[in-house]
Design brief:
The chain is an alpha/beta fold. Helices cover about 55% and strands about 15% of the residues. The protein contains 14 helices and eight strands. The strands form two sheets. It has a five-stranded parallel beta sheet with strand order 5-4-6-7-8, with helices on both faces.
């Protein structure tokens, strides 16, 4: 009877285990079971072996219940509300403080449903209240951090991650293009942005491109998988240059010091600086880097240094 559900779970996730709900909502599986048993807030399906399975409606309801619960509503009270009243209350109590969490929940639902319209509707609602910078740092960054964990725990598939990442990339490109039409205000340095070979995680680098343009500097955006010898060509056209390299999964940890050393020997001189950011920078031996090489632990830290 439930074979079709199990097959679906192995492909595109529109049916979820209780562990998936825990990962997506932040509510422990034990608590979800208690809420079901005592208050009947969710009605899971069951496999032939009595394993709980939940549909997208249950996920959305749990995300709304979580927001109400975080806002101070008791679960015993929430359980008495109709299906229509719960989302209605959520809309009423959304404030600046919890708007970010609500938006993240809506973006998750858009991702799980491959619902482009919901993504755009949620984005338009946010951008009416916030700057793009605030939307990216307060909503998109936490969302992408969560997606990484959801992917690692097999709660979502690469298709889900690619779907929402592409939509975020679209918004970045629109905002970047608007800034590129503005005249350059500062001419003391040029920023060249790239990713190492085989590095494909580009959203962080794209956002830094936006921030640098926002501050009035000239940029050259090269993107993913850029060989070091290609970067050197830019020195024939510009100077001094700040090369920004974003390291998420590449280069290999064992090769990272050699990679930095090669960049230093090939690129430094004539006022050039090397700026490194990303998950892997913690593996760089800081005792070995040149004075013109700088390591940043976060986007905010790097932006403050521009």
């Amino acid at each position: 009877m439930f074979n079709k559900f199990e097959k679906t779970m192995n492909n595109i996730k529109n049916v979820f285990s209780i562990k998936d709900l825990e990962n997506l909502s932040g509510i422990k599986a034990h608590t979800i079971r208690i809420w079901e048993k005592r208050y009947n807030v969710l009605q899971p399906m069951r496999t032939d072996t009595n394993i709980r399975l939940y549909d997208l409606h249950s996920l959305q309801k749990l995300l709304n219940i979580t927001l109400l619960h975080d806002y101070g509503y008791k679960i015993s009270k929430i359980a008495t509300y109709s299906e229509e009243k719960i989302p209605s209350l959520v809309r009423e109590i959304i404030t600046t403080k919890n708007a970010n969490n609500h938006a993240i929940s809506d973006f998750k639902m858009a991702m799980m449903n491959f619902d482009q319209d919901l993504f755009f509707k949620t984005y338009d609602w946010l951008i009416a209240k916030k700057t793009f910078k605030e939307v990216f740092l307060q909503v998109f960054v936490p969302l992408m951090n969560e997606l990484g964990l959801l992917w690692q725990t097999d709660t979502i598939t690469p298709a889900h991650e690619h779907f929402v990442s592409y939509l975020i990339k679209q918004k970045l490109l629109i905002n970047i293009e608007q800034l590129q039409t503005q005249p350059v205000q500062h001419h003391d340095k040029v920023f060249v942005l790239s990713l190492p070979m085989n590095e494909i995680h580009e959203l962080g680098l794209m956002y830094l491109h936006y921030e640098i343009l926002l501050q009035g500097y000239k940029t050259v955006y090269l993107g993913e998988s850029m060989p070091i010898d290609n970067l050197k060509v830019l020195k024939n056209n510009f100077g001094p240059i700040v090369y920004i390299t974003y390291m998420t999964v590449q280069p290999d940890r064992e090769a990272i010091d050699n990679y930095v050393s090669t960049m230093e020997s090939e690129l430094l001189g004539d006022g050039t600086q090397l700026w490194f950011i990303g998950r892997l920078v913690e593996n760089i031996d800081r005792d070995k880097i040149a004075s013109e090489t700088h390591i940043f632990q976060s986007i905010t830290e790097l932006v403050d240094a521009i």
